[in-house]
Design brief:
Length: 208
């Protein structure tokens, strides 16, 4: 899978939701037994988090938000069906892709099923077992681009050398958990990208 952490290109961003933008229809059933939780769009660092290392990347976890399950191969999943749960899932998605030896299994579990996932799985199979290049980029913050009850787009800031870069993920609620929406043909995983001088416009949130 193309490494979103190493891509950089500026792109205009949509208006981020405001603190008064609740997610409508927030009465759905929880995924994996996690409570649905607060449906407001996070505009500050979530408080209910502790930080752990997952596949070389420091990520948040919470008893009420997730991850709630660990597979035999170490894959972490099961997040609350809320905007904050989706942000937690996005952080974990970046970390999950760090282990090249488990890339195919990870992509199969992580990506939203469909033709675009099938195409990406074929690409991942060709790149499987490739070691991650250099040090792992550590997550530094997030900016919500768009959110609804079952879908969220987020820009994730990461430390890159002496500065920052960002990648963009869209997540969709599917079969009781958040899945990353794979790119369409001709698009790059994690695009649009940007080089950042600082975290202006992002919610700083990091465990390292």
């Amino acid at each position: 899978m193309p490494d979103a952490r190493q891509q950089v290109s500026a792109a205009p961003a949509d208006r981020p939701p405001t603190p008064d933008d609740p997610i409508s229809g927030a009465t759905g059933s929880p995924g994996c037994g996690q409570p649905v939780g607060d449906q407001s769009v996070p505009v500050a660092a979530p408080r209910d988090a502790e930080w752990v290392v997952y596949r070389r990347v420091v990520v948040p976890r919470s008893a009420h938000i997730g991850p709630g399950r660990t597979d035999a191969d170490g894959f972490l999943h099961c997040f609350a069906q809320s905007p904050t749960g989706a942000v937690f899932a996005a952080y974990h998605a970046i970390a999950a892709l760090e282990d090249g030896a488990k890339a195919v299994a990870t992509a199969r579990k992580l990506l939203l099923p469909g033709p675009d996932r099938d195409r990406m799985l074929r690409e991942v199979e060709l790149e499987a077992d490739e070691p991650a290049a250099g040090e792992s980029a550590q997550l530094a913050g997030f900016r919500i681009i768009d959110a609804s009850r079952d879908r969220l787009s987020v820009a994730l800031a990461m430390r890159v050398g002496d500065g920052y870069g960002s990648a963009t993920l869209t997540l969709a609620w599917y079969d009781g958990d958040w899945r990353v929406v794979p790119p369409r043909p001709g698009e790059q995983f994690g695009a649009p990208f940007a080089q950042l001088d600082d975290l202006a416009g992002f919610v700083p949130w990091a465990g390292i």
